[in-house]
Amino acid sequence: MSVLVYTESEQGTFKKTAYEVASYAKGIADMLGTDVAAISFHAADAGELGTYGVSRLHNCTDAKLEKFQAAAYADAIAQAAQAEDAKVIVISSSADSKYLGSLLSVHLDAGYVSNVVELPSSADPFTVKRSVFTNKAFSNTQISTDRKLVGLSKNAYGLKENPTDCAVQDFAPTLKDEDFKVNVQSVDKATDKVTIADAEVVVSAGRGMKGPENWHMIEELADVLGAATACSKPVSDMGWRPHGEHVGQTGKPVASNLYIAIGISGAIQHLAGINSSKVKVVINTDPEAPFFKAADYGVVGDAFEVVPALTEKLKAFKAANA
Amino acid sequence: MKILVCISHVPDTTSKINFTDNDTQFDTNGVQFVINPNDEFGLTRAMWFKEKQGASVEVVTVGGAEVEPTLRKALAIGADTAIRVDTPAVDGYAVAKELADVVKNGGYDLVIAGRESIDYNGGMVPGMVAAMTGASFVNTCISLEIDGDKATAVREIDGGKETVTATLPLIIGGQKGLVEESDLRIPNMRGIMMARKKQLDVKPSVNATPETTTVKFEKPAPKGEVTLVDADNLDKLIDLLHNEAKAI
Ligand SMILES: Cc1cc2nc3c(=O)[nH]c(=O)nc-3n(C[C@H](O)[C@H](O)[C@H](O)COP(=O)(O)OP(=O)(O)OC[C@H]3O[C@@H](n4cnc5c(N)ncnc54)[C@H](O)[C@@H]3O)c2cc1C
């Protein structure tokens, strides 16, 4: 018996969320008195999995699994869970992991809880806390099945070092034709940009920016901070910015360390998407904007003056602290 | 083409979230319920298939009699018939099991569900139904075309999008992008009148046993006051972000 974790990688290298889910799985394994095994696809090596408490990596190198395939990945992870006799399986809350999670849950008859924010408060009955109502509340949820599938929210647990030796072994799942009913034709990904999902810092702007031609200010500020850019819903509805940047209840959730909101009023639907960000900064001309109630730091001022000035000052700060 | 649209009956997005019964139940007092926004995009796309490709559109909700106004709204928007599975929606798994039974017996070519419901945000139901029925599954779908028994879909991925093809029967987890926001429909008087005459079947539950239970809800701890920084003193903001918040 062990805790199995699915560690996501890109072009052979583990993503930061892989180390976060590994850290979390180690926390559960300690509660259960067992160890952590990982499964990954086309990982170049064990990376730092050992640092975060993983004892074994099952690495699938089947050529058919080089690109993400929800059904096939779910099937392979289910087989690894069976091989490990894993009672708890941990995945992340990335778009891909959520996609395969529901399939995996049915394959394994494992009760599934997504958006989990803490270690279980009890191992028996197995009870975890997850965010619900788009981050406006939490539910302490009990899983009653023998096997449990936990989807961890990004940045909720952080990285915890637990050095151990990680052995890598090749894992060859038996794949079926049904695993390949959905075929990827093309992928269109802005590879040079930080994505909202992975970003530590997000610079987001709303209708207060007046028009798409003013977004260079937002991009320059984001550049200095190595941040991803995002926007409010009307901004993407009007086509000023791509839909993928829309943050909120009907858009993307953001769980960054720092969220800077510029010219965004802070409507409840927008706030729903950013509640799990750690530090929030608001720049707005209107001191009554509801966003100030949700923010940690605020500047009442005109974005057209504040943003360029802040960018310059941050450049100097970065240069001095490099 | 026969389409089933799964509709989740959720609190309106501006609802205040409170709990009752010792924090074990969602407090519906004064709460407006609506069609889940992700499902609304899916329903509108289904209407497009109905009008342009002659599809029939059925909608389904798992829930007690209180969800019927939401189903009637979907009928008023243009769905042909509706099914209510008569049992409370207790967890994602149980809802999926009930829906899978409808799907298995309905002979649908396409099942459209929302990526997630904005109440419990589990994002589990569409994929579980697909796994339970053996249908192809595409999640976070932002564009969908059907030609014969072939589907071409675009799905949102972290940092971009991906185009996929799949064979029917297909189930999608849809979201904003599936149709333009401006194409979403508000029921008109004629639609509302017609909806009253449309068939709404109440189907008995298969009595799926949930796999998860909420033992207690909690609200986030109240947040402290915002620290305001003068627009002429941005060095102070940088100092606070660096030394106090440790965010840069
Ligand atoms: C079902 C539903 C779902 C929704 N989902 C979402 C969602 O997911 N995400 C989302 O964002 N919204 C969502 N909304 C919309 C939401 O209610 C708000 O309309 C939206 O968030 C407002 O965007 P905004 O703050 O950019 O624009 P506005 O409300 O127009 O606010 C602009 C702000 O900019 C400030 N401003 C103006 N000029 C300047 C300047 N020069 N410098 C600094 N500040 C300035 C103003 O004071 C104001 O506060 C949803 C609505 C509905 C009904």
Automatic annotation (TrEMBL), chain A:
Keywords: Electron transport, FAD, Flavoprotein, Transport. Coiled coil: none annotated. Its cofactor is FAD. GO terms for biological process: fatty acid beta-oxidation using acyl-CoA dehydrogenase. Gene3D superfamilies: HUPs, TPP-binding domain. Binds 1 FAD per dimer. Residues 3-184 form the Electron transfer flavoprotein alpha/beta-subunit N-terminal domain. It comes from the Bacteria. One of its GO terms (molecular function) is electron transfer activity. FAD binds at R207, G263, I264, S265, G266, A267, I268, Q269, H270, N284. Belongs to the ETF alpha-subunit/FixB family. This is Electron transfer flavoprotein subunit alpha/FixB family protein. It comes from Nonlabens ponticola.
UniProtKB/TrEMBL annotation, chain B:
It comes from Nonlabens ponticola. Keywords: Electron transport, Transport. Belongs to the ETF beta-subunit/FixA family. It comes from the Bacteria. SUPFAM superfamilies: Adenine nucleotide alpha hydrolases-like. InterPro entries: ETF_a/b_N (IPR014730), ETF_b (IPR012255), ETF_beta_N (IPR033948), Rossmann-like_a/b/a_fold (IPR014729). One of its GO terms (molecular function) is electron transfer activity. Residues 23-204 form the Electron transfer flavoprotein alpha/beta-subunit N-terminal domain. The keyword Transport applies. This is Electron transfer flavoprotein subunit beta. Pfam families: ETF.
